Amino acid sequence: MESNNVREIIQQNIRKKNHFSDKLMPKIFLFMALISVVTTFGIVYTLIFDSIKFFSQVPISEVFSTKLSPLSKNPSFGFLPLLNGTFFTTIIAMLVAVPIGMGAAIYLSQFASEQIRKILKPVLEVLAGIPTIVYGFFAYSFVTPLLMKLIPSLGAKNVLSPGIVMGIMIIPMVASLSEDAMNAVPEIMKEGAMGLGSTKLETTTKVIIPASISGIVASVVLAISRAIGETMIVTIASGSAKNFTFDITQSMQTMTAYIVEFTSGDAGSGTVGYYSLYAVGLILFIFTLIINLIAQYIARKYREEY
Q1: How big is the CA angle at 166 (ends 164 and 171), to the nearest 5 degrees?
Q2: Number of structural domains in the chain
Q3: In this predicted model, what pLDDT tens digit does every residue of 101-154 receive, in sequence order?
């Protein structure tokens, strides 16, 4: 009888309260969640709509050629030089960022003391807060002259220098996210491995890293996407040479640098060159999407659940 009275009192209190906020707030939260979805659809629509205008005037066979001269009297739009430049700068950046970032993550999560971790991690993450244009001038005015002393054939504008600096820039992304993934592995797994006689290094390489592989893959993919989409470093240090070459000591132009070059006013609105910006942007978007889909597949396949 007493429980019924309590239940009635609760129901009366509920009816007395104003639940306007309870009905309104979920709608506000839904609106906030839909903003990113609507924005994504808007970006995709803009890229596809304007890219169609470009591909209606330029055949696909020309797009996948090696001749790119959009401002010449007889313009040609072969995007392979841009893909080539983007590919090489990204590969160089990842060759720098992944080993160093993973090494830093392993040290911070498994070997460093708490006092050292509190000092090193903030210092490492400071790199992520430096503006990319500063990295660009650093690559052009410091790294390139230094490399020219080691490689006499290195051009003043080249792919090697911005690739290295891009790798330095995304080290905090790889290191921080990988460290978080390693720290998320249950401590009992580490203790069990060491209890069986494994060394700390063996425990890290054979237990911790395999168990956190999904988070590590996510950090690498985010770093790749960041490198592909980087603009200012390659614009300043790599130059605008639209050559299809495999020589990383020479200047190449990336997709993002091409977009920057044309948005500075070289291409008039409504021209084929203007719509080529959207075509390059669409290709860049597709590449990034494919990389993310592959990463999600790898992460799901090797994900460990505890």
Answers
A1: 95
A2: 1
A3: 999 999 988 888 888 888 888 888 788 788 888 898 899 889 999 998 888 888
Looking at the chain, list the stretches that DSSP marks H as alpha helix, in order from N- to C-terminal side: 2-16, 20-55, 60-63, 80-106, 114-126, 132-138, 144-150, 160-183, 187-195, 200-203, 209-211, 213-228, 232-237, 255-261, 272-301
In eight-state DSSP terms, residue 204 is: I
Whole-model pTM: value is 0.82
| Mean pLDDT on 168-193 | 86
Per residue in 56-79, pLDDT (tens digit) is: 888 888 888 888 877 777 778 888
Q: Would residue 61 count as lying in a domain?
A: no
Q: Are 76 and 61 in contact (CB under 8 A)?
A: no
- Residue 77 phi, psi dihedral angles, 5° rounding: -125, 65
Q: Do the domain assignments include residue 155?
A: yes
Range of the domain at 278: 68-301
* CATH code for the domain in which residue 207 is found: 1.10.3720.10
Place of tokens 């690498």: 220
Residue 102 lies in a domain: yes
Q: Which two tokens stand for residue 191?
A: 């203790």
R_g over Cα of the chain? 26
Three-state DSSP at 77 gives strand
For residue 62, give the nearest of 48, 46, 49, 75 by alpha carbon: 75
Q: 50 burial class (0-12, 13-18, 19+ CB within 10 angstroms)? A: middle
Contact 70, 267 (CB under 8 A): yes
